[in-house]
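Researcher: Please translate sequence to structure tokens.
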Amino acid sequence: MQGTDTGPSLYGVGELSVEFQLATGRMPLQAQGPQAPQKSPQFTQPQIDAMAAYVQSEAPGPTFPSDEILDGEGDVAHGAELFRVNCAMCHNVSAAGGALTEGKYAPALTSTSALHIYAAMVTGPQNMPVFGDMNLSDDDKRDIISALLFQQESVSVGGFSLGNLGPVSEGLFVWIFGIGGLVAITVWITAKSN
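Model: Translation complete:
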């Protein structure tokens, strides 16, 4: 539990962190790097649950939330506002993720489960800060989870999302296809007139 030169200490991490790291495939770590990438888990869910329970019994820490926090029935508008204020600077306002410094990145939350959203807020994996009860109450966390689950299920009303990366990707799309189309039409008209 105390860790080694190549592995962190597990004292105080609790079952929530263990479940998050193993179920998202971040652990066991394949190679040292700026950030552990998400990949397919190497253990079954019963094995993950057993390891999480063992760590919780030996090194207690954050535990699983009540089902109410994960139910997606919170205040979506308030959750979206809290997400924009606390999370969007890294995860993007549309939860599409984004690049950080030194080869690190904030992962996309477009298909993340409610449990893993909560676990990330409470345990602060890798580059993410811990959002304790002094920062965000359980009701606030429920609202953020509800907003993200709502966003995962909603349909893009504006047509193509273009990766939800904002005006840069949209502007590039217009320049490449819009201006390119105008040039092609101009060449065609010129060729027809000759």
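Researcher: Any highlights?
Model: The first helix runs from residue 14 to 23.
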